[in-house]
Amino acid sequence: MSVPVVLIVDDSLTVRMDLHEAFEADGFITILCATGTEARAAFENGGFDVAVLDVLLPDADGVELLRELRARPGGERTVTVLLSSEAEVADRLHGLRTGADEYVGKPYDAGYVVGRCRQLLGDGEVPVSSATTVLVIDDSVTFREQLRELLEPEGYAVITAASGEEGLRTAADRRPQAVIVDGIMPGIDGATVIRRMRLDPALRDTPCLLMTAADDYATEVQMLEAGADAFVRKQQDLAVVLAKLAAVVRTSAERLPFEAIGSLHGPGKVLTVTRERHRLAELGDALREDGYDVVAADNGDDALDLLAAQPVDCIVLGLGDGARETCMRIKEVPQIGATPLVMTGDHDDALLDCLAAGADDYVRWADGTQALRAHVHAQIRRKQSLDESRRIREELMRRELDAAGERAARQLAETRAALVEELEWRNRELEAFSGSVSHDLRGPLQIISSFAETLLDEDEEPLGPQGRHRIQRIHAAAGRMADLVESLLLLARASRGDLRRQQFDMTMTTWQVIGEVEARDPSRKVDFTVAPDMTADADEGLVRVILENLINNAFKFTRKVEHPVIDVGWTGPADNPRYHIRDNGAGFPAGKAIELFRPFARLHSADEFPGTGIGLTTVHRAVERHGGEIHAEGENGRGATFWFTLPPTR
Predict the structure, then answer these.
(1) ω before 522 within 30° of 0 (cis)?
(2) Edge-to-edge strands of the sheet including 29-33?
(3) Per-residue CA distances from 57 to 10, 35, 53, 63, 234 (Å)
(4) Are strands 527-530 and 268-273 parallel, antiparallel or unpaired?
(5) How far apart are CA 132 and CA 445, in angstroms?
(6) Which of helix, strand or coil describes residue 589?
(7) d(Cα 360, Cα 342) in Å, to the nearest integer?
(8) What confidence score (pLDDT) does residue 9 get?
(9) What's the pTM value of the predicted model, to 2 decimals?
């Protein structure tokens, strides 16, 4: 992962150096500017991922600088934070609506600014790596470096923190795979660090190894009850640290592969709504120590405007005129209404009314700032736990739905395959039956037809008029039956057997078929045109069947036309042409084209245009076997055109 670069623009040397040290300690490269002129020069050079801009500069307005930055190519992707002592709601909204990703009021917490920038960059999660990341929290720089020298040769990636508070923020920011924490430190001790991690939905499964110089059994029990996974005395050989660390990492619960949620100790924002801001000053200072940015609003309208522009982690609402109505208005807004809301007042009597209005908690001012701070933490922790549970349920439900969809798709595919196999088997049986019956019928039909002809030609025992009529009907019926059997045999041949594809001269084949058709009725004169140089990559025998049926049809249905014309040609690309056979004959009713290819379907009477009704079905089957398509166009009395394709093998 490349090292992120941050541009810091502030006219205060103290602020610049404070932010410089905080960002540099977190692995950023910093570019420092004191004026708008220097900032614009930095804009020209580019090369930064984050910009922290002071709103009030001696020669520029930070909001205007933001607008200039956003207008530059690539500037819309730069994470931008506005930093200002002008922290009123109107100022914040102006900055956010201009395009800022974050607006932080002064006094600020440097840890919040750094953590929020990394969060906006999307670097809050630990990058995928083969090395296990270990966070070492100890107030002794010497001991931190000893552990680094011990762990890094063993393949661990080591990050460090000098205090419990810094360690919690670093853990929230970097999400290590394990934590080694000193038991005794200024500020919060190691046991408190572990207890707070166990209460944090994002960190509670992180293995923790606690180290202390104490050697009594009571201390060990106390540390383990705080939630430590292992306990090591500093007097022991450091090799014990390696062994116990390997053990807790190896046996730690495998994390569910769900989207990571925000940490309780990561960068957060608390909105306070009250006109009595002096009462919240101490709370703001305490929350900033925990890494929270505190935003103040005077009334409910300002609070709703700000919440619409930027979500917060918790709302503290001071009891006063219209406070209950403000609480109800906030809770009625979708998404915003899920934000934890703590109301504060002077009397216990207001508790039930505040909870009835929708507040999540109520704290008396008399209980002190630390009590209010603890309640805010509890509500944020509760909300994060609920979010984590909901996210896990939704993810499990999504995965179950995906699995159910896959099972259903697999079952459908299996059912479809079984149906296709059964259909293919039944078609093969039907085709075999059709071919067998057709062959078996040929013999008896020939006998019937032969005896009928013999009786009609018999001179020694001449037939009477009625007998001759009956024998003629028998002979004609046998002939029609023979034609039908022959058509069924052609259909069976078109439906089974292997395709023998080859490149052949389709123009020559067409003329051969035309010659055979004309020979059967030499008295008729039809004007045939055939496109030259037609070729096809197909089974020549089946293509001949297609041409015979279509040209015979065109020949038959132009019988009543004074000047019959039949055209055979093609259009489209040479490697996949679209062939056509067009005539100016009887045509067929518009909208009935699909019925032409059904077995035994007829759109004209047999007396007018005799036929079996199988020919076009055979054509359709032959074209489909080549993977092609066929359709017809026509109108009554205006001829017909049959289009078909014979796609080559890919």
Answers:
(1) no
(2) 29-33, 5-9, 50-54, 79-84, 102-105
(3) 7, 6, 9, 10, 51
(4) unpaired
(5) 89
(6) coil
(7) 6
(8) 94
(9) 0.54
